[in-house]
Amino acid sequence: MSPAGLYRKYIKNNMFTKILLLIAVIAVITIVALSYLMYYFLFQSAVRSELDIQRGAVERVERYVDQKYENVQSYVNELYRNSSLGLDASYFLMNSFNEYMVKRMDRIVDSTQSNTDSVLAYFKQRLDDDPDIQNIMLYSAEEQYVYVYKQGSMTRLYQANATRSYIPDVMAMETQSVTLPNLWLRKLTGDASVPLISIRSPINDMTTYKNLGQLLVLYRTEALDRVLRSNETEMKGYVMILSGDGQVMFDSSGKYYGQKYPYTDQLGKVKDTAALEEESYVTTAVHSQAGYTVVGVTPKRVIAGAFEGLRNTIIATALLCIVVAVSIPSLMIVNYSKRTNNIIRFMRKVEKGDFVARIQDAKEDQLGQISSSFNEMLDKLTRYIDQVYKAEINQKNAELSALQARINPHFLYNTLEVIRMRALSQGAQDVGDMIYSLSMLFKNIVQHKARYTLKDELEACRLYLELFRIRYKDKYIYKMYCDEQIKDVPMIKMSLQPLIENYIVHGLRSERDDNVLSITAELKDTEIWIDIRDNGKGIGPEQLEEIRARLALAESSGESFGLRSVNERMKLTYGQAYELDIQSEPDEGTVVTIRIPVTEEELNRVV
User: Which one of 68, 102, 181, 213 is CB 3.0 to 4.6 Å from 198, fit for a cystine?
Assistant: First the structure.
């Protein structure tokens, strides 16, 4: 199925699928964004922390080398401050070792002072004071020899004239204070394989300022490893010390020691990062006086690798959160969708005419309330249909009765007219009048009109009353009153005649000649009130309650028209509030009241 087909089938008209997709998109975007921001800020925090560690390591190394540099300078400055020691050093560097030793012995013999002013003893003491020193070398430019102090070994004198080594040339060329030890000097002392840093300082004559030689102090780099490990948190990269010409004097990674660093040019452009072997965070500290540079390097890959576990944890957590954030709403939405589809399914059953179907949903949320309201609506609709159905049956029965009564109506009308004319020819005027009233009443009952009004119903009542007035001679009278504006209001057929018939059959006192029946129809607000009042026998309280109770019951099949029939048709037509009201007192008479709702349109309608 194509994407367009999938959209039309599962998404376009499915509100819950759209909501689920919206929730899923929002959850995924939110969780991914939060996870990325969390990882980003944690990573940046780790970078800042690592840079702080890196700067701290660089500063510690720089302080260490600077301290050693200051120590070497102080060694030479002490020669200048102590005149006796300075003279001894000058004599040592300007004469051969044998001449110096002879002079030294003569001074010891001639003087009572100790030999603390001996330059040889002085530097031996410096060697003993600092265990990080591997060698102290005194080089005589005049005599071209090297006097070497070695940690844990005896001092030695090496001849270094230009005919047998390159040391004089090297000493004359080197100008930097902190450098990588010269290979010839390392071979001379047998320390070619030991990582060392050389710090040198020239020794000049105190009076002529002529250069007499050089002081070289070689430090073991293992002390720098201890300096780097002294911090509680070890840096993830490495630290190097570069000489002024780019030679690597120390490399904690052990990769570049003794070589020229290939990325020296990039270090001159460093801010925070540089493209060295790989993209790296770089920290530098330059000692302008001594000419060396301490460099801290931490590859970005190393920091990222250290956070790989955290990244995987964040990704796993984010995926779990996405699953939870989508699954829980999905379960709820699927449940709501099933309940909604169930409601729709029952509605379609009702649409097809199944009014017995009921939605089984005991929950009290909105869908449960909709289901409950739908069931209540069906109950009311079923009752209403039942009532309308019964009303239609009653109406059909009435029509059937009227139809039966209309059998050959012209024959009946003609027959009644023949009988009336016969009665008149015999002088029976009252019989003729009764036959005429009966004929007109019968005609009024059986005829069909598109719109039956209150005036028509009152006319039927008049014909019926006139028929019985003739029968009972002058023993009763009837009165009728109706507001003109309500005569054309629609009225239920045969709604008043059964009430009048009730009076004639049960309430009329044939032994009296003051029987009165009045029918009054008046407009009160939005209702028409019709009162049928008589002064007949009346109804006792118990019988009246029984009649009212029977009126509350639905009319059963087979019962004849009467009070209950009228009452039932009134409620079915106008509503449950519109029912008969019967008031009666024994020997005083009865009042039956009917209320009919009316609209402005019906009042203003002209027939």
Answer: 181
Q: Do residues 530 and 521 make contact, with C-beta atoms less than 8 angstroms apart?
A: yes
Q: Tally DSSP H helices, then E strands, for the chain.
A: 19, 16
Question: Cα–Cα distance between 225 and 221 in angstroms, integer?
Answer: 7
Beta bridge mates, 238: 297
**The two three-digit tokens of residue 6, written as one number:** 């999938």
Residue spans of alpha helices (H) in 216-269 = 222-229, 264-267
Query: What pLDDT does 565 receive?
Result: 80
104-163: per-residue pLDDT in tens?
Answer: 787 777 665 544 478 888 999 998 899 999 889 888 888 888 899 988 888 888 887 766
Q: Which tokens hold the place of 96?
A: 């051969």
Give the span between the Cα atoms of 376 and 381, in whole angstroms. Answer: 8
Nearest residue to 238 via CA among 194, 282, 273? 282
What's the full length of the chain, in residues? 607
At 376, phi and psi to the nearest 5? -65, -40
Which residues are CB-neighbours of 331 under 8 A, at least 6 positions away? Answer: none
Q: Tokens 């020193």: give the residue.
A: 133
How far is it, in rounded angstroms, from Cα 530 to Cα 412? 33
3 state SS of 384: helix
- Beta partners for 589? 585
Question: Are the C-beta atoms of 145 and 159 separated by less than 8 Å?
Answer: yes
Provide the CA 425 distance to its chain's centre, in angstroms: 101
Pairing of strands 196-204, 178-179: antiparallel
Q: Would you call 419 exposed, middle or buried from its count of C-beta atoms within 10 A (0-12, 13-18, 19+)?
A: middle
Specify whether the backbone of 494 is left (phi greater than 0), alpha (psi in -120 to 50) or beta.
Answer: left
What residues have CB less than 8 Å from 76, skipping those under 6 apart?
Answer: 201, 202, 203, 215
* pTM, two decimal places: 0.55
Torsion of Cα atoms, 7 then 13 then 17 then 21, to 10°: 60
Task: Find where tokens 């001849």 sit.
Answer: 159
**Count of Cβ atoms closer than 10 Å to residue 490 Cβ:** 14
pLDDT (tens digit per residue) in 182-211: 877 788 778 778 888 889 888 888 777 788
What's the pLDDT score for residue 312? 87
485 half-sphere exposure, CB direction, 13 A CA radius: 14
Tokens, residue 364:
């009290």
Where does 181-262 have alpha helices with state H? 183-189, 222-229
Distance CA 462, CA 440 (A): 11
Tokens representing 300 are 């970005």
By the 10 Å C-beta count (0-12 exposed, 13-18 middle, 19+ buried), 31 is classed as buried
CB 54 within 8 A of CB 298: yes
Q: Which helix (H) or strand (E) holds 424?
A: helix 409-425
Per-residue pLDDT, 447: 62
Alpha-carbon distance values, 584 to 317, 503, 516, 533 (Å):
85, 12, 15, 10
The alpha carbon of residue 288 and the mean position of all alpha carbons in its chain are separated, in whole angstroms, by 59
> Which parts of the chain sit beneath pLDDT 50?
114-116, 403-404, 406-408, 410-411, 557-561, 606-607
